[in-house]
């Protein structure tokens, strides 16, 4: 069995504890199996055992085979000198500390059913490992785990924000703009949108905040989409002329137009439409980042993102190609929800953490609880298993469960998996 399974057995004290002896023949009592170590070094620390009549306190190391001690080069590593017990499944050798002292070894004995339960999960070929046994789990157990899963997912997202913040010398406004722009590209055009935002400082854009036309000229010009053809309609030519002036004024360097993807996208999601909507958001919002910090309700947030592309795009999806489908291109509720979930919430959370403003962290979680659950294939499959996401808070937790635990079959780190493995 893998080491992680043996660690799980040890951590949960699912092994035989009565009348146990070490390989060396000494009586052994496990007083405290210790705490799981998530950093480098021995697997468990602060353990306590009684060996014959002597009580020992220290660390525990667990291996499949005793000889793994040498394979992992622990013999001369002083970090392992405080190991008081070596727990193994197979005792094929004796092991010592760096000074040559013998470390007692215990062969771990546990119910065979536990191994069978674990292998059944690991070998499953279903959507999630426990799909065929899911009915055995109390749904309340899953609900209780949502908080932990949601915080885990937020921490993953906030780590990306922290890294970007460091790259921007702790400039919150610039970092927020870059990540917001990336999300305007959603999955398909996330990268070119991020590159566009990094090529064009938010401070430069704010100098032209009172002119939607100039904001579009800057964004479309630096996107490379005004270089696609020499001739075009009046609006296209005006944008290009305006950008030519601004390009020289700010010594701009744009990105390549070929980076943008249009294929297999619904026309309302074309990057041309999204760029115009981003310009509109900057144009109509006074102090975008500070505004986000002030907003207290979902209704206000959704109102903020009720932006539409400029009038030209009422009759176009691409430059110089009028469309038969003429209508305002407004950012829809679904898109607004995606922006709130993936940018506003984690940004508020990390800003609240960094600035010691815990009310912002609570507000971020409140936004998730007041947004409808996401509608995607993963959430639909959870629903078929009887798990209904009541809000975006729940759906984000379920996405974390599926993507981080189920995909990698980390069943021993999951409350549901642990429940199923432990049943005898």
UniProtKB/TrEMBL annotation:
Keywords: Coiled coil
Coiled coil: 151-182
UniProt name for this protein: DUF2851 domain-containing protein
Organism: Draconibacterium sediminis
């Amino acid at each position: 069995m893998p080491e992680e399974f043996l660690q799980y057995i040890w951590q949960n004290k699912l092994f035989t504890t009565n009348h146990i002896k070490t390989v060396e023949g000494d009586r052994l009592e496990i007083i405290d199996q210790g705490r799981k170590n998530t950093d480098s070094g021995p697997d468990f620390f602060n353990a306590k055992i009684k060996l014959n009549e002597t009580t020992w306190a220290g660390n525990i190391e667990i291996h499949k085979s005793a000889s793994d001690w040498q394979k992992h080069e622990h013999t001369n590593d002083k970090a392992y000198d405080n190991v008081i017990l070596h727990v193994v499944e197979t005792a094929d050798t004796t092991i010592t500390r760096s000074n040559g002292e013998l470390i007692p070894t215990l062969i771990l004995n546990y119910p065979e059913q536990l191994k069978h339960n674990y292998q059944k999960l690991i070998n499953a070929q279903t959507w999630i490992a426990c799909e065929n046994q899911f009915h055995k789990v109390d749904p309340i157990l899953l609900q209780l785990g949502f908080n932990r899963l949601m915080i885990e997912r937020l921490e993953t997202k906030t780590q990306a924000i922290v890294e970007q913040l460091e790259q921007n010398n702790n400039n919150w406004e610039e970092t927020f703009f870059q990540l917001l722009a990336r999300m305007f590209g959603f999955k398909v055009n996330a990268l070119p949108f991020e590159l566009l935002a990094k090529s064009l400082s938010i401070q430069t854009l704010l100098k032209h905040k009172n002119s939607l036309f100039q904001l579009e000229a800057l964004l479309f010009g630096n996107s490379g989409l005004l270089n696609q053809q020499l001739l075009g309609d009046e609006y296209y030519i005006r944008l290009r002329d305006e950008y030519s002036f601004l390009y020289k004024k700010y010594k701009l360097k744009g990105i390549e137009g070929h980076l943008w993807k249009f294929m297999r996208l619904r026309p309302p999601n074309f990057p041309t439409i999204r760029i115009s909507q981003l310009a509109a958001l900057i144009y109509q919002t006074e102090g975008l980042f500070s505004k986000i910090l002030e907003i207290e309700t979902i209704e206000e947030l959704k109102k903020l993102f009720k932006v539409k592309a400029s009038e030209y795009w009422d009759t176009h999806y691409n430059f110089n190609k009028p469309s038969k489908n003429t209508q305002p291109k407004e950012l829809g509720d679904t898109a607004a929800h995606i922006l709130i979930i993936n940018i506003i919430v984690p940004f508020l959370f990390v800003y609240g953490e960094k600035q010691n403003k815990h009310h912002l962290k609570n507000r971020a979680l409140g936004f998730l609880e007041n947004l409808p659950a996401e509608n995607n294939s993963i959430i639909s499959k959870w629903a078929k298993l009887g798990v209904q996401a009541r809000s975006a808070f729940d759906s984000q937790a379920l996405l974390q469960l599926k993507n981080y635990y189920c995909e990698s079959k980390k069943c021993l780190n999951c409350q549901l998996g642990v429940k199923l493995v432990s049943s005898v």
